[in-house]
Design goal:
A hairpin with a 3-residue loop joins strand 16 and strand 17. The longest helix has 22 residues. The chain is α/β, with parallel strands linked by helices. The protein has twelve helices and 17 strands. Helix 2 packs antiparallel against helix 9.
C-alpha cells in the first residue's frame, strides 16, 4: 500500500468509493458514519445532488482559466463572503495554509505601507495550528512540527486566556500581527473565551497591531454562525477561511477589512489555480445552502450532539470535558484518545483525535438527528470498555 507516495500519512487500510450525506461506503460495501467530514471539510456530506449537478455542468464548460481572465463566479463568491464576514475584499487560495501565507504577507506589507517596516514579527497562541508551509508553520505551536525546519519567521508565544501576558508582549514586541484561532482545532477543540477575544481586539487596537483570525476550521458556519468570532461580537482585520468553503474541493480565502483592501499592488501576490470556475461553482452551492438555512441545522444538530456528550460525561468516568460549539466538538478523556478512536473506527464511526486526549467530532452539516443518536450510542458503547486513566498530552 501507498506505493510511490512519500510516507507522510498514517492511513487506514480501507478504500472508500462512495457515500451519501454523513455515510461513507468502502470497496467491500461496508458503511461508516462519517463524523470527521474529511477533517471538517465535507460540510454538505457526500453525494450532494445540487453540488454534483453544478460540478458536472461546469466541467462541461470550462475548468481553468488562470486569474489573468474573468469568469462569472469570482465576484459572486467574493462579495457574498465579504457580506457574511463584514470584510471588504478577498484573495482566493487553494488551501488554508495558503490563506495564512496571504494573511502574513498582507500584514507585513500593511506595516510597510504605514511607515513601520520594522514591524515584521508575529505573536501567536500556545496550542495554535496554522499550517505546514514555512510561514504558517512558524505560527504553529507544537515543536514537533517546527523543529525539523527551523529557523522560521520570528514569533512570540502567549498562553490562551492570559490577557496580561498578551498586553505585555504586544507592547514590547510591536509585531505586525497577532494570530489566533477563536476555537483551537489541533489544540484540542479549545474555545477561547468571549472576554479574551474582546481583550485581544482592544489590545491590538491600542498597539497598532493587526488582528488575524484563523477560522479555517471554525469558520464557514461550523459553529452555527458563519464565523466563530461572531458569537463574541469581534471583527478581526484579516480572517482566513478554507475547509468547507467549496464543499470538499480545494479552496481557501483570505479576507480583510476596508483599510487593508488596497494593500497589495498588482503582481505582489498571486496563485495559478486559486479561485477557478470549478471551485467557485462549488462554493456557490455551499453558500446557497447557507442562505437556505443550513446554519439552523448546524445549531440544532450541534445542540443535540453537545447534550448527548454532556450525558456521557455525567455517566462515564472516562469523560473529562466536553468542548466546542455547534458541530465543532471535542470530547476530552481520561485516556488516550487515539486508542478510543481506533475502536470507534472498528465500530464504523469515524472521528479522530487531537492534543492527545481529545476526540474531535466534526460531522457534515447535513447530518441527521437519527445519525447523531446512532453516533452517541456507539460512543457510549465503546467508552464503557475503557478505564479512566491519566494520559499525557502530545
Amino acid at each position: 500500500m501507498d506505493e510511490g507516495l512519500m510516507k507522510t500519512y498514517g492511513r487506514a487500510a480501507e478504500v472508500f468509493v462512495g457515500g451519501h450525506g454523513a455515510v461513507l461506503t468502502d470497496s467491500t460495501g461496508a458503511e461508516y458514519l462519517d463524523f470527521l467530514a474529511g477533517i471538517a471539510v465535507s460540510a454538505l456530506g457526500h453525494g450532494h445532488a445540487e453540488l454534483t449537478r453544478a460540478l458536472r455542468d461546469q466541467v462541461g464548460k470550462v475548468v481553468h482559466l488562470s486569474n489573468l481572465f474573468r469568469h462569472p463566479y469570482t465576484e459572486q463568491v467574493a462579495t457574498r463572503l465579504c457580506a457574511l464576514t463584514d470584510m471588504a475584499a478577498a484573495f482566493f487560495t487553494n488551501s488554508g495554509t495558503e490563506a495564512m501565507e496571504c494573511a502574513m504577507k498582507l500584514a507585513r506589507k500593511a506595516m510597510a505601507v504605514r511607515g513601520t517596516p520594522e514591524r515584521t514579527s508575529f505573536v501567536a497562541l500556545e496550542g495554535g495550528f496554522h499550517g505546514r508551509s514555512l510561514g504558517a508553520l512558524s505560527l504553529t505551536w507544537s515543536e514537533k512540527y517546527r523543529k525539523p525546519f527551523q529557523p522560521l519567521q520570528q514569533v512570540s508565544w502567549v498562553a490562551p486566556e492570559d490577557t496580561a501576558a498578551l498586553a505585555r508582549v504586544l507592547e514590547r514586541e510591536r509585531p505586525a500581527a497577532l494570530v489566533l484561532e477563536p476555537i483551537q482545532g489541533e489544540g484540542g477543540i479549545r474555545a477561547l473565551s468571549t472576554e479574551f477575544l474582546r481583550a485581544a481586539r482592544e489590545l491590538c487596537n491600542a498597539t497598532g497591531t493587526l488582528l488575524i483570525h484563523d477560522e479555517i476550521q471554525s469558520g464557514c458556519g461550523r459553529t452555527g454562525r458563519f464565523l466563530a468570532a461572531q458569537h463574541a461580537g469581534v471583527t478581526p482585520d484579516i480572517v482566513t477561511l478554507a475547509k468547507p468553503i467549496a464543499a470538499g474541493l480545494p479552496m481557501g480565502a483570505c479576507l480583510c477589512v476596508p483599510a487593508l483592501a488596497d494593500t497589495f499592488q498588482k503582481g505582489e501576490h498571486g496563485s495559478t489555480f486559486a479561485g477557478g470556475p470549478l471551485v467557485c461553482r462549488a462554493a456557490l452551492v455551499f453558500l446557497d445552502e447557507i442562505d437556505r438555512g443550513l446554519l439552523g441545522a448546524v445549531q440544532d444538530r450541534g445542540r443535540q450532539l453537545h447534550d448527548g456528550l454532556l450525558a456521557l460525561q455525567r455517566e462515564l468516568p472516562i469523560v473529562r470535558e466536553v468542548r466546542g460549539r455547534g458541530l465543532m466538538l471535542g470530547l476530552r478523556l481520561h485516556h488516550s484518545a487515539e486508542a478510543v478512536q481506533k475502536e470507534l473506527y472498528r465500530r464504523h464511526l469515524m472521528v479522530n483525535c487531537t492534543a492527545g486526549d481529545v476526540l474531535r467530532i466534526v460531522p457534515p452539516y447535513v447530518v441527521t438527528s437519527a445519525q447523531v443518536d446512532r453516533a452517541l450510542q456507539i460512543l457510549a458503547s465503546v467508552l464503557q470498555q475503557f478505564p479512566a486513566q491519566p494520559v499525557e498530552k502530545s
